[in-house]
């Protein structure tokens, strides 16, 4: 197309009014697979530029593992405390028995004298009898137990036979070796024998 751009009309000699150029229609890309849609720089859906959200790790959360570790520590401390308490209770009972046994060993001469006095009838009545009974009651509160009595079956674990009397009278119905005389009573504290009872025994006929 040829446009006459002269400002003067060659026929009339007048100045021509400028004619506004016709607006050109934008070219539309037709059917191009690589064409953009929308603003420049905006990625098309499905072009592979959208980032997928980061997947969470398969491992446990750190707080969960920390809680498990603390629980295991607590269980271990509790087990240690239970074992400690058992050991302390056992040692306390053993120390108590040891202390009581030490006292009984120191009082053995006094207890033997009281036993001999009772055998000879000197503790039938009076203040001395009350003192002897209070002493034995006090020792009993600490787990002290007297060993040896006439008529008991002889037990070598807690009795010591000093004499064997074949002609001694036994309790009716006795079928085992039996104590017929107590020369010195024995004493034990808990399972600990402080002194075995020294006795005379006899066998059934």
From TrEMBL:
For region Disordered, the annotated ranges are 1-65
Which UniProt keyword terms apply here?
Chaperone, Coiled coil, Cytoplasm, Stress response
Q: Which InterPro entries match?
A: GrpE, GrpE_CC, GrpE_head
Q: Which GO terms describe its biological process?
A: protein folding
> What positions belong to coiled-coil segments?
67-94
Stored Pfam families = GrpE
In the record, the note on similarity to other proteins reads: Belongs to the GrpE family.
Q: What does this protein do?
A: Participates actively in the response to hyperosmotic and heat shock by preventing the aggregation of stress-denatured proteins, in association with DnaK and GrpE. It is the nucleotide exchange factor for DnaK and may function as a thermosensor. Unfolded proteins bind initially to DnaJ; upon interaction with the DnaJ-bound protein, DnaK hydrolyzes its bound ATP, resulting in the formation of a stable complex. GrpE releases ADP from DnaK; ATP binding to DnaK triggers the release of the substrate protein, thus completing the reaction cycle.
The name under which this protein is listed is Protein GrpE
**Which gene is transcribed and translated to give this protein?**
grpE
